[in-house]
Structure formats: C-alpha cells, structure tokens
Amino acid sequence: MNEQRRQTWGVTLASLGALLWGISGPISQDLFQHAGVSPEWLTGLKMTISGILILAMVTARQRSRVLNVWRKRSDALMMIVFSLIGMAAVQYVYFLTVRASSAPTATIMQTLGTVMIVLWGIFYHHDYPRPADILAVTLALLGTWLLVTKGDLFHLAISPVALMWGLLLGLSGALNTLLPASLLRRYDTLTVVGWSMLFGGLTFTVIHPAWHDVPTLSFWNWAGVAFIVLFGTALAYISFIGSLNLISPTVAGLLDAFEPLSATILAVLFLNVTFNGWELFGGALILSTVFILSWAKPAENRQQPETHADDVDAQ
User: Fold this and answer.
1) What are the distances in angstroms from CA 289 to CA 68, 80, 115, 118, 219?
2) Number of H-type helices and E-type strands within the chain
3) How far is it, in rounded angstroms, from Cα 272 to Cα 268?
4) Closest Cα to residue 179, out of 92, 78, 68, 312?
5) Cα 136–178–111 angle (5° rounding)?
6) 98 Cβ contact list (under 8 Å, min separation 6)
7) Residues 185, 306: contact at Cβ < 8 Å?
8) For 151-208, how does the pLDDT look when each residue is reduced to its tens digit (9 = 90+)?
9) How far apart are CA 23 and CA 146, in angstroms?
10) I need a surface site. Which of 26, 72, 136, 147 has the fewest CB within 10 A?
11) What is this structure's pTM?
C-alpha cells in the first residue's frame, strides 16, 4: 500500500471510530431518558460483549499471544487495576454524565482528561509547563465555566451532580490513558483493550447481572443497544486503533473531533437538546485544547505519558 492510500485509509478509520463513538452518545441518552435503561446494565452488557468480540479477533490473528498479558504477575495486577479504575470507570462515568446532563456535554467534558494529563506531568514529574500547556489549561477552565453556566458566570446551569460526574469523567479518562502505559509497551493495544473490556464488563455483570431486571424495550430500543455494543464500542475501538497503524496518533487524535460534533448534531436534531452561544463557545474552547497540545512542540527532556487509542475517548 502506497503512502497516499495508507493516509486515506488511516483517516477513514479514525474518522469512522470517532463518528461511531459520537453517535452512540445520543442513543444512550435516549435509552436512559425514555426506555428506563440503567447505566449499570448497559455498561456491563456492552463491555462484556465488546471484550469478547475484540479478543476473538485478536485470537484469530495471534492465538499464541492472547494470554501473555496474564502470565506475569505484575502485568496481570496492572491489567486488573486498569480494567476497574481505568476502562470500566470511564465507560460507566460517561454514561452517568450523559444521564445527568446530555451526550454532547459528556463528550466535551471528557476532553478535560487531556488537560489533567498535562497537569499530572507538571506536578508529578515536575515538567516545566510550556506556553501551550498554560494556554490549554486556561482555555479548558474557561470553556468548562462557560459550558456549565451557559454564560451566566455565577450560576450553575447544570446540576451539581452533572458537574461532579463530568469532572470525574475527565479524571477517569486521564487514568484510562496513564494506567496502561507499561502494558502497552509490551503487548498489542487491542489485546489490552479487549481484556480490560471483558474483565471490567464481567465485574459489572457480577455486581449487576445483565439478565436481572432486564428493561422492557421496543424493537428500536434493542436496535439502539445493539448499535452501542457492536458499532459504538467494538467496531469503534477496532477502527480507531487500526488507524494508528496507518497515521500518527496526533492526526488520529485531531480527527476525534468528529465525536463531539456528531454527538451534538444528533442530540439537537433528535433529542431536542439546545445550546446557547456561550455553551457552544465554551465547548469549542475545551475541544481546542486537543489541537493546541497536539501541535505544540515537545519540550526537551520532557516526560511524556504513553498514550493509546483511548486517550481521547471514553466509550
């Protein structure tokens, strides 16, 4: 495959993954608001099935190595920790944020995880902040303030619960990027994602079995659940991670802007979600931090956290 075709395929796969993540947000919002679906039930179901599908694909490709991550005790322990307070946490908290606010708000708030990673490097590794870091943090804070106040700067326009979940979503997104760094240096990314999905999903299934209190759903509700599981999770991860073999993580991360864009358009068109100009401006400021940090020149001797395909996404 020549370089032009690699670039085209990479951009297509990254855009597809982001669009599928974005579309699944408004669908989940509709399921929570109108079909009585609980975040616990949907999280366990989608993570378990998606984990099985991803691992099945990995097994078909490299069966001899799919279990390697569990052979070393320290790696197995890190996988468990990452599965629970990284992958499972970010999936679950995303749904809680959607239920408490809206899909577009949740999708934008999760971008704060990128800024939290920058702050982690500054305070933990004592990295001297670059001008781009200072600008990104400032814009993220200002954008969040505008988003949650709708421009009335001294009155919350979303519930305190929604704000709490949104901030926790950013934190869990940052942990979801930082925790598996050592695993991703030694194992295939899809293998790590597949096992973390499956382990996290099975944990939710133990706590809230998917076969208990199954909501009464219409055909279209079940179609929405199937879309979230098969396309909005499994295929989205496979597509986005696959794009990293063809284009740089920076380009793939920038294309992830399609996620909040598609989530916002669908929520406005089909769920009667409205935004005023201040909210849109605030959301744009938060999203701009991804572009600023991606384009900024790395500082010399700066310790950069390892990232993987979920460093900009929760679903």
Assistant:
1) 37, 31, 7, 11, 40
2) 15, 0
3) 5
4) 78
5) 35
6) 25, 28, 29, 32, 39, 106
7) yes
8) 887 787 889 999 999 999 999 999 998 999 999 999 999 999 999 999 999 999 988 8
9) 24
10) 72
11) 0.89
